[in-house]
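WARN no homologs supplied; continuing
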Amino acid sequence: MFNSHKKLNALFLALSICFLICSLLVGCAKEKAKQSSKSAILVEDSLGRRIALERPLQKVVVANAYNTDLTELIVALGSLDTIVGVDQNILWNNEAFQNKFTQKDLICARDGLVINYERVIDMKPDALIISSRGSWHDAEEKLKGFGIKVIVVDTHDMEKFSANCQLLGKIFGKEERAQEIENYYGSKLAYVKQQLANVKNRKTVYFECGSPGATTMKGSYFYSMVKYTGGINIMDDAVERHIVPEAVIIRNPQMIVKMSDPRWKYSYKPPTLEEQLAIRKELVNRPGWNEIEAVKKNNIFQLSYFSHCGAAKIVGVLYVAKFLYPELLPDLHPEEAFKVWVTKYLNLEYLPGHTYPKIT
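OK structure emitted
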């Protein structure tokens, strides 16, 4: 009898110890899960899609429909080293990204529409970052089985600048740097909005962003270049990006803004003076354009693709706003804002000459 009680006590003790250990293990697992949940990075992308990341992104591929804006913002955050795949737009202007990329880093031809998914998968990135105008839905279907997140970031939409800074800062673990960029360029944009809020007799503007007749309208990449600068876009009601040159004559703009790269390419190296003059000569010598008010008064401003897209196009807006209303923006210095972007945030040498005439 005594031995039976002894065995029962020993069994009860063993079961108690097992129960205690199990309770501790379950408690630890719950605590670990709780801590993991707290440490997860939860964000909403430009489409409002909720995305959870275990840690800041370490490797990304970029296939944005206008990914110069996006890639520059990532570089400005100090995260150039995380980019392992790009589209052709970036490879064409490798100098702007410290010559980091080669042909082996190419994941699609242009605009994030035809992506080489096999190459992306081989790169083993944490995420593919793409525009809502790119094939993001297809990418999500193709990559979800490989643990590669698809994050939509619309840097071409300047209204989302603040949200994009916060989003990119969070997913790359660079919140402080992102806030600094947002504060610096956001304050300059706020100054323009404030100063031009009550402009009377707003100036009419023709904006040309490529070959003759290639303009901007609602929904296009360059629309912010007029919308946020106090001007009236004479092609605001256009339904097609390419218009006939005669339409400009009929609508007779007071000001003309022209993207001025030879062959209309994004390039860190500015156009030469000879190239700027040749571009202007072609423009003013178009049949009938000598009757346009902007041409008569030489109210023509040329800026490069590279200069316009600084801080997700805010730098371009600053230039155009100053061109249109210099007397209303005495404290705005676009060239200085461009210089800060290039030297401080892109870590490049400042090369003057991206605009003609020069606007300080």
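The radius of gyration is 27 Å.
OK
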